[in-house]
Amino acid sequence: MLVPVQPEATPRTERKRVLFTLVFLGSGGIERSVCNVLAGLDPRRFSTRLFFHHRPPPDREDRLPRNTQVSWATDSYDYHRQNLPLYLWHLVRHAREADVIVAGQEGRAALLACLAGRILGKPVVGMIHFDWGAFHREQPRRQLWGLRLLYPRMSRIVACGHDTARSFQELVPVPSDKLQVIPNFVDGATVRAAGEAPLPDWAVPIFQKPVVVAVGRLEPQKGFDVLIRAHALSRQRGVDANLLIVGVGSLEHELKALAESLGVASSVFMPGFASNPHALMRRAAAFALSSRFEGLPMVLLEALALGCPVVSTDCPSGPGELLAHGEHGVLVPVEDAPALSAALERVVSDAAWQRELSRRARARAEDLSSERALGAWETLLSSL
Length: 384
Description:
By secondary structure, the chain is α/β, with parallel strands linked by helices.
């Protein structure tokens, strides 16, 4: 005997299955921006997975979004080109269960996401994090060839800012209706809660004086050599402040040697990776971004959320866009150590100006709502 099935009171909707892919879980803004999107997507509408080529380091696993399945291809942190088929095999295995594949960064992640999409016949979304007009000049030519080969074949492309989108479109011929701007964002409440944590023991002596804090990879892009020169100029004029540069990278020894040669090694601190840089940033007299180029820097968004007085280079692209061209922070020319020094010196020495910049930073953070960006992501992913 057949029993008739009663219709459900409300129709059941299938969740869209989305797979984001990254090379590894680094400490930079790219990884944080991807994890912020995954953490913010409505779990009632989206089932999410994050796939890495390399296993996430144990000391960074707390950065992974909680409502997302995480998988990886290899436990090794070393890259070997001959392992590309292995990374692709694992990516295809997991992507079979996805409706949409999102390449969370340029380069190898985009290459394998495109191949997996082609093999499985699934839509691929690419993310653009850099101002490629500036970035491609210091990259191997194959990077630019890769952009021009891969991204026109993707279903959609998401740029982190309007300046970034314009510079990308000048290099890569993609139709305007395929390229969409969805700004990076941060969860301000989470960032501010992290900022309330106590200082680590090693940082307490440093903050006995006013501190200028910078955060980023120790690579040429970030311009920390210019920042150290700016700090040295301020010290020569009698400004008794410390400079704290948080991050790891290939220039660590070179930057420490520069500080030594300028006679400021005793006031320049480079502790490496910090699990909670927000506790350091919240207590800073000023936050400095000395980059030669950017996209839409996550660390600057975090500084604004914390109410840090911001001094930044007006580099391509991102800082001008985020700071409303100087309304919510101080902008100085790229590579100009004297201008950077003068701007930081005023913030450190003028308490009223410091408070005003902090107020402007908080006001800007309120404008940069995560809800709008997440709504755009959900609309885009639902449409594919």
